[in-house]
Design brief:
Shape: elongated
CATH class: Alpha Beta
Radius of gyration: 28 Å
CATH architecture: 2-Layer Sandwich
Pfam families: Phage_Mu_Gp37
Number of helices: 4
Strand content: 25-35%
Protein name: DUF1834 family protein
Organism: Nitratidesulfovibrio vulgaris (strain ATCC 29579 / DSM 644 / CCUG 34227 / NCIMB 8303 / VKM B-1760 / Hildenborough) (Desulfovibrio vulgaris)
Largest sheet: 6 strands, mixed
Order of helices and strands: HEHEEEHHEEEE
CATH superfamily: Phage tail protein-like
Helix content: 10-25%
Distance between the termini: 44 Å
Length: 209
């Protein structure tokens, strides 16, 4: 089964971040509630980057055929770091550890303007949205900083051929149909038992209506 555009874009974002091999990163993954679980276990995975699908806005059709729609969509990239010194060091970093400010800049450099066309995706270039602080403080005597950066795009959603008013793929708009050679007429008397009571076959001659 072909993956949905949402999953493919999410995978592309993670692939881009992962293939950069940022030397400080321990974790690049989709977000699965890690920050809601055991804190000590989660901190051991810092510095971490998580990718999460946030949602979509109303789609708009392309042209009058309405077979292709542009869907505005948003993903969120979370960056998380910790430092034994203090909370400021988790944001600004130090000689030994990266801070979340630098992590945000690195993510922006990797994702800004990416449309992943080379990977077969149909989407507008990624553009950055707002940044929110999710946590800045102390956890288990460690400074912890977590920020969330929104990333916006618009992807192409293609209507499946079988959804075109019940028309099968081979009769989708733009397909050349074979010439009509005849018309079958079936007559049903009431009450109808499902079997035609009479059948006429009208053969059409080429060039005549």
């Amino acid at each position: 089964m072909k993956a949905s555009p949402i999953a493919r874009i999410e995978d592309a974002i993670m692939r881009r971040l992962g293939e950069a091999k940022l030397p400080y990163l321990r974790t690049v993954a989709t977000y699965g509630g890690e920050l809601d679980g055991e804190v000590a276990q989660t901190i051991r995975r810092f510095p971490a980057v998580w990718v999460a699908f946030q949602g979509e806005r109303e789609a708009e059709p392309v042209g009058t055929s309405r077979t292709v729609w542009h869907v505005p969509a948003t993903w969120v990239v979370l960056v998380a770091a910790h430092n034994l010194r203090n909370e400021a060091a988790t944001r600004r970093g130090d000689a030994m550890h990266v801070g979340t400010y630098q992590m945000l800049e690195d993510v922006r450099a990797l994702l800004l303007g990416q449309d992943f066309e080379a990977w077969g995706l149909e989407m507008d270039p990624l553009r950055p949205g707002r940044v929110r602080s999710l946590f800045n403080g102390k956890l288990q005597s460690q400074g912890v900083s977590i920020y969330a950066q929104e990333w916006h795009t618009r992807y192409a959603l293609h209507l499946p051929p079988t959804a075109l008013g019940g028309v099968a793929a081979e009769t989708a708009p733009g397909t050349v149909l074979p010439p009509l050679s005849g018309v079958g007429l079936r007559y049903h008397l009431q009450p109808d038992d499902g079997t035609p009571d009479a059948v006429d076959l009208v053969t059409l001659q080429q060039g005549r209506m």
